[in-house]
Amino acid sequence: MSSISTGRMIDNSSDPVKGRVVWMPAKSIWITAMTLIAIIGGPLTFTWSAFAVFILLTAITICLGHSVGMHRLLIHRSFSTHIWIEHFLVYLGMLVGMAGPFGMIHAHDIRDWAQRQRDCHDLYAHRRSFFIDAFWQMHCIVALDHPPRFVLEERERRDRFYRFLEATWMAQQIPLGLALFTLGGLPWVVWGIAVRISVSLTGHWLVGHFAHRAGHQGWSVDDVAVQGYNLPRFGLVTFGESFHGNHHAFPDSARLGIEPGQLDLGWYFIRLLARLGLASAIKLPHTIVPRRGLTRHCV
């Protein structure tokens, strides 16, 4: 099966369909350990202050870190900012506990590349049943028989800070954990680390699962394996990431909630940076080249 190149994923007689699902021990043990600690330790150590720490750190790491820093900035370069701000936002995104910066870029881009083809493996399309998809997405990867060639930009590849985070991303929870223990004891550690990571990673999978299966669709893209859908009810708790149909339509846009009434807190933060003179070259749907085959639907 022939394929097309997309950004960092270069066609190399690649096939987005043929491959096998492979269990990843480190990834699986990480999320399993965090989930078990959360399920067992969460109720045993619950305090209202620990719960507040969980809410605050989850909001900061998901909104400023994952959504703005990792996704919109590092992966899509939908705006520009000072390198120290970029590093800080990406660091917050790394604290979500999903992967290091290079791992996040690769995981995003291989999925995006596969979904843009005429067909792709079931894992990339979230086609399997709820529980199989959960296991595949959070504990496995696809080992394609003929994968594309991944070419990371020199700027990111040579960045010493990103290389450091990539090598130590799991261990980066330790300094935060020590700070939480000093300030609030074991309850703050359990809720600020384990509960936060397990909820964040499970929530990330849930959004991906449902946003690639059905929902509101203001736009569609012709001749691709997977469509994106919006989940309007979850705009607030995902900080705009649930407007995935919009993202498929305009992947390089800094704003994900582009329709009236779509709450996108990540976009509000980028606007704040811009007003402070800390963000520029902001890409929006009307300033970028539309995707080929993009079709508008009634909303």
UniProtKB/TrEMBL annotation:
Gene Ontology biological process: fatty acid biosynthetic process
Record localization: Membrane
Keyword NAD in record: no
Protein topology in the membrane: Multi-pass membrane protein
UniProt GO cellular component terms: membrane
Highest taxon of the lineage: Bacteria
Record keywords: Fatty acid biosynthesis, Fatty acid metabolism, Lipid biosynthesis, Lipid metabolism, Membrane, Oxidoreductase, Transmembrane, Transmembrane helix
Protein name, entry field: Acyl-CoA desaturase
Organism classification: Bacteria, Pseudomonadati, Pseudomonadota, Alphaproteobacteria, Hyphomicrobiales
